[in-house]
Write a structure and sequence with these properties.
This protein has 154 residues and is α+β, with helices and mostly antiparallel strands. It has a domain of 90 residues: 2-Layer Sandwich (60s Ribosomal Protein L30, Chain: A), CATH 3.30.1330.40. The strands form 2 sheets. A 5-stranded mixed beta sheet has the order 1-2-7-5-6. Strands 3-4 form a two-stranded antiparallel sheet. Helix 2 runs parallel beside helix 3. The longest helix is centred in the middle third of the chain and has 23 residues. It is globular.
Length: 154
């Protein structure tokens, strides 16, 4: 039977995907004590990127927010794979967002809100997290957004 977090995710109309396999020499997550570190997740859905290119260029803020939301779903799918039960998440500690940005694009935090808002909707108060958002010149496979995270777990 699904726990409270998975019930909330279902109520949001979200089905967690099977986590994507790493595309290089790393693992999807590492647990060290009570912390779970999840590797960067791209905006992949059904094996395809949902947004490619640069924010402030060919990708709108709204498209970027949707891409960040997809990254957050993939991040939580990795947490589920690591723990088996999302109710073991004590707190979402930190999200780091990397936004593929055209020169001068200054709205990366607005893009990252697509992920932050969804994480809080999924986890409630324990989903309120610290965060960094960084505009970058390029991401793997020209993805528009990549997000990693740190979770405190039971």
């Amino acid at each position: 039977m699904a726990g409270a977090v998975e019930k909330k995710i279902s109520e949001l109309g979200i089905t967690l995907p099977t986590p994507a396999a790493p595309i290089a020499t790393y693992v999807g997550f590492v647990r060290s004590g009570s912390l779970l570190f999840v590797s960067g997740q791209l905006c992949l859905e059904d094996g395809k990127l949902t947004a490619t290119g640069q924010l402030g260029g060919s990708v709108s803020i709204e498209q970027g927010q949707a891409a960040a939301r997809t990254c957050a779903i993939n991040l939580v799918a990795q947490v589920k794979a690591a723990l088996g039960d999302l109710d073991q998440v004590v707190r979402v500690v930190r999200l780091n967002g990397f936004i593929n940005s055209a020169p001068g694009f200054a709205d990366a935090p607005k893009v990252m809100n697509g992920a932050s808002d969804l994480i809080v909707a999924m986890f409630g108060d324990k989903g309120r997290h610290s965060r960094s958002t960084v505009g970058v010149a390029a991401l793997p496979n020209d993805a528009a957004v990549e997000i990693d995270g740190i979770f405190e777990v039971a």
